[in-house]
Automatic annotation (TrEMBL):
Keywords of this entry: Cytoplasm, Lipid biosynthesis, Lipid metabolism, NAD, NADP, Nucleotide-binding, Oxidoreductase, Phospholipid biosynthesis, Phospholipid metabolism
SUPFAM superfamilies: 6-phosphogluconate dehydrogenase C-terminal domain-like, NAD(P)-binding Rossmann-fold domains
Pfam families the record matches: NAD_Gly3P_dh_C, NAD_Gly3P_dh_N
Localization, UniProt: Cytoplasm
Protein name: Glycerol-3-phosphate dehydrogenase [NAD(P)+]
Domain Glycerol-3-phosphate dehydrogenase NAD-dependent C-terminal: start-end pairs: 179-319
Organism for this UniProt entry: Defluviitalea raffinosedens
Role noted for this protein: Catalyzes the reduction of the glycolytic intermediate dihydroxyacetone phosphate (DHAP) to sn-glycerol 3-phosphate (G3P), the key precursor for phospholipid synthesis.
Pathway membership, UniProt: Membrane lipid metabolism; glycerophospholipid metabolism
EC code: 1.1.1.94
One cellular component (GO) term of this entry: cytosol
C-alpha cells in the first residue's frame, strides 16, 4: 500500500532511505536540516556532501520546513544524528498526531539520560507509536540497490508489520523483531566496537587481532544488552552480530575509518575532522561505559576505548592492557544464563 512518508534528515542514511522508499512506490518528502542543504540537493538532485554519485529521483519532494514535511504523513523516518534527536523531536512534537508512526533509523544512546533513541522519542512524542529500523546497512550500498537485510522492531506487532511492508523490497529484506531494547542496543553499541576494530587496523595488527576484538566485543554487547532486558537471539541476529560484522569490516563505516586514523596516531579531533560525517561511536562510548557501571557488567574493551578517546591513552597501550588482563575461562558465570524471551505487547 502506498504511504505518505517523511524522512527527517538528509545525510547519507536519510538520502538512501528516501530513495529506497520512493522506488518502493511511496510518496516521499525528504526534510533537510538546513536550507543550504536543500538548495544543493535540489540543484544537483544528488547529495554531493554525504552520498555522491547517487541520483535523487525527481519524485522525492525536498523541503527544509519541518511543519510541511510532517503534515499528513503516516510514516515519519528519523535519520538525524542521535545527539540532535531530542532537540529536533521537541520542535516536531506539536505537529505530530496519534495516527502517525515514527520510525527511528539512527543508532545511538543519549549521554545525559542513558536512554535509547526510541525511549527519547517516546518521551518527547508520547502521542505516536515508535518503531526502530536497524541492521547491517551502509547507505552507500542501500542507495545502489545492493541486497541488504534489516530488522524492524516495535512494542507493537501490528506497527512492526506495517513498517516492514513499507520498507520491504526485493533488494531490501526486512525482518520483524519484538525485542526493541535489544535491537537498539545492538545498533548503538556496535559503533563503539567498530571504533576499536578500526584502531587495531590502524595500528597495523592482523586478522587474528580483529577477530578477537570483534568476538569479545560481541560478548560485551550481549552482556550489557541482556542485563538491560534484551534477548540473546537479537544479538545473534542482524542488529547484533550482523551489524557488528559490516561496521567492523567495511571501508564505508565512519566509525571504523575514525578508528583507523586514531590507530595511525591522529587525535580524536583530527580523526573526526577528516571523516567529516557523523561518528556515533564516540558519543555512545560514554553512555555504554556509564551503562556498564549502572548494570554492573564487565566491558573491558569499552573501558579501553574511553581511555583512548578521552583520557589520552595510547592505542598500543590499550591493546597491551587488554591482552594482559587476568587469565580466565571463556564461559563466565554471569554469561551463562542468557535466556530472556521477549514478546510483542499486543499479542
Ligand atoms: N550512513 C549510514 O550508512 C547509516 C547511518 N545510520 C545512522 O543514521 C544516523 C544519521 O547518520 P548519517 O545520515 O549517516 O549522517 P551524515 O553524517 O551522513 O549526515 C549528517 C546529517 O545531520 C544533519 N545535521 C547536522 N546538525 C544537525 C542538527 N543539529 N539537527 C538535525 N540535523 C543535523 C546534517 O545536515 C546532515 O544531513 C546516525 O545515527 C547513523 O548511525 C544508520 C544506518 C546506516
Ligand atoms: O550503521 C551502519 C551500518 O549498518 C553505519 O555505520 P557507520 O556509522 O560506522 O558508517
Amino acid at each position: 500500500m502506498t504511504q505518505n512518508v517523511a524522512v527527517m534528515g538528509a545525510g547519507s542514511w536519510g538520502t538512501a532511505l528516501a530513495i529506497l522508499l520512493s522506488k518502493n512506490g511511496h510518496n516521499v518528502t525528504l526534510w533537510c536540516y538546513q536550507e543550504e542543504e536543500r538548495i544543493m540537493l535540489e540543484k544537483s538532485r544528488e547529495n554531493l556532501s554525504y552520498l555522491p554519485g547517487v541520483l535523487i529521483p525527481n519524485n522525492i519532494h525536498l523541503t527544509s520546513d519541518y511543519e510541511e514535511a510532517l503534515l499528513d504523513k503516516k510514516i515519519i523516518v528519523i535519520t538525524i544524528p542521535s545527539k540532535f534527536i531530542r532537540s529536533n523531536m521537541e520542535k516536531f512534537s506539536p505537529y505530530l498526531k496519534e495516527d502517525q508512526i515514527i520510525v527511528n533509523a539512527s543508532k545511538g544512546l543519549e549521554n545525559d539520560t542513558l536512554l535509547t533513541m526510541s525511549q527519547v522519542i517516546s518521551e518527547v512524542v508520547p502521542q505516536c507509536a515508535v518503531a526502530v529500523l536497524s541492521g547491517p546497512s551502509h547507505a552507500e550500498e542501500v542507495a545502489r540497490d545492493i541486497p541488504t537485510a534489516c530488522v524492524i522492531s516495535s512494542k507493537s506487532k501490528k506497527v512492526a508489520e506495517l513498517v516492514q511492508d513499507v520498507f520491504m523490497t526485493p533488494k531490501f529484506r526486512v525482518y520483524t523483531n519484538p525485542d526493541l531494547i535489544g535491537v537498539e542496543l545492538g545498533g548503538a553499541l556496535k559503533n563503539v566496537i567498530a571504533l576499536a576494530a578500526g584502531i587495531v587496523d590502524g595500528l597495523g595488527f592482523g586478522d587474528n587481532t580483529k577477530a578477537a576484538l570483534m568476538t569479545r566485543g560481541m560478548v560485551e554487547i550481549t552482556r550489557l544488552g541482556v542485563a538491560m532486558g534484551g534477548d540473546i537471539q537479537t544479538f545473534n541476529g542482524l542488529s547484533g552480530i550482523g551489524d557488528l560484522i559490516v561496521t567492523c569490516t567495511s571501508m564505508h563505516s565512519r566509525n571504523r575509518r575514525a578508528g583507523i586514523l586514531i590507530g595511525q596516531g591522529k587525535s580524536l579531533e583530527e580523526a573526526l575532522k577528516e571523516v567529516q560525517m557523523v561518528v556515533e561511536g564516540v558519543h555512545s562510548a560514554k553512555a555504554a561505559y556509564a551503562l556498564s557501571k549502572k548494570y554492573n557488567v564487565e566491558m573491558p574493551i569499552i573501558r579501553q576505548i574511553i581511555e583512548v578517546l578521552f583520557e589520552g591513552k595510547s592505542p598500543k597501550e590499550a591493546v597491551v592492557d587488554l591482552m594482559l588482563r587476568d587469565k580466565r575461562s571463556e564461559h563466565q558465570k554471569e554469561d551463562i544464563h542468557w535466556t530472556h524471551s521477549v514478546s510483542w505487547k499486543d499479542e
